[in-house]
Amino acid sequence: MSQYILALDQGTTSSRAIAFDRSGNIAALSQQSLPQHYPQAGWVEHDPLEIWDTQRRAAAEVIARLPEGSTVTDTRFAAVRQGNRLTVVLKAECLEQIGQTVTLPETETTQR
What we know:
Elements: E1 4-10, E2 14-20, E3 26-33, E4 44-46, H1 48-65, E5 75-82, E6 85-87, E7 101-104
Parallel strand pairs: 1-5
Antiparallel strand pairs: 1-2, 2-3, 4-7, 6-7
């Protein structure tokens, strides 16, 4: 059986999962759109449960797309990358989210 590295990438607008084979080739990939919430100009928020759901769906879809005969047990390592500046606020006693995440949008390419 083959072994795969499952990489999860969280972007501002989507969640992605990619499985790489032992040679570093892409064996399967999936991208799920992430809803954006704009409570006011210049603000972007995300629902942490939507982030989790889109990552879970992307990973499941990648595993389902692996070559015939492959299973989740063939995935030996998972790597997570999140490039946004993102904050999730949780209640300390139960670890439930207090509200949406606060995401600082990239402004390096925004005209001023």
